[in-house]
Amino acid sequence: MLTGLGVLPLMLVACSKEKPLVVHGKDLTGASFGRDFNLQGPDGKRYTVKDFKGKALMIFFGFTQCPDVCPTALARAVEIKNLLGEDADKLQVIFITIDPERDTPEMLAAYTDAFDPSFLGLYGTLDETQTVAKEFKIYYKKVPTGSSYTMDHSALSYVFDTNGKLRISLPHAQSAEQCAEDIRQLLA
Q1: What is the spatial distance between Cα 73 and Cα 76, in angstroms, rounded to a whole number?
Q2: What DSSP line would sit under 11-22, residue for residue?
Q3: Which residue has the higher pLDDT, 24 or 188?
Q4: Can you tell me the distance from the alpha carbon of 137 to that of 108, in angstroms, rounded to the nearest whole number?
Q5: Which of 47, 48, 136, 183 is most buried, judged by most C-beta within 10 A?
Q6: Cβ-proximal residues to 6 (8 Å cutoff; 6+ apart), any chain
């Protein structure tokens, strides 16, 4: 028989509003990180997770001059939206730059528009970038390359449910089909 505090975990599970997920990615339900961001879009407006309530939100951190990982992640996001069919409009894709020194609002808009006009590029100051990366446990580092630099960075996509709660991380190697299956669970 459970008494005292032993009942508390069972009660918390029973009261949880999020249904269990069986995903190809990683179930982050109840995570204590990745709660929010407050960054600017190319339109000059500041955005937070609350601005996308009612939609699933997929976030990827990267930079516009990335030679392979970032364009591959955004191309996969296009494919995911196509696979969602009639539910495609229920997914908002956000690209958060980790290189605000070079990624101007105009560059971000052109970059995300090249993949899908509904995708949104967000940026902040160097301090804001550091803060949001820390909140989402994203690794990034400027790496000198001759007279310029590149950026090393994590290659995960994060997905929020329609209530603005972080629920899934999608590894870079996960197929678009598997990602779409995972995301459909948040749209049901």
Answers
A1: 5
A2: HHHHH--SPP--
A3: 24
A4: 22
A5: 183
A6: none
pLDDT: which is higher, 1 or 25 = 25
Structural domain spans, the chain = 38-187
Give the alpha-carbon dihedral of 149, 153, 155, 161, to 10 degrees.
Answer: -120
- What number of helices (H) and strands (E) belong to the chain? 5, 10
Residue 17 binned pLDDT confidence (cut-offs 50, 70, 90): low
Q: What is the pLDDT of residues 165-178, one digit of tens each?
A: 999 999 999 999 99
Q: Round the average pLDDT of the chain to a whole number and report it.
A: 92
| 70 marked as binding residue | yes
Interval 123-141: pLDDT, tens = 999 999 999 999 999 999 9
CATH number for the segment(s) 38-187:
3.40.30.10
* 24 labeled part of a ligand binding site: no
16 token code pair: 């949880």
Residue type, 25: G
DSSP string, 128-143: HHHHHHHHTT--EEEE
Give yes or no for residue 49 having a pLDDT over 50. Answer: yes
From the CA atom positions of the chain, what is the Rg in Å?
Answer: 18
Which residue, 5, 6, 31, 8, is CA-closest to 18?
31
Is 15 assigned to a binding site?
no
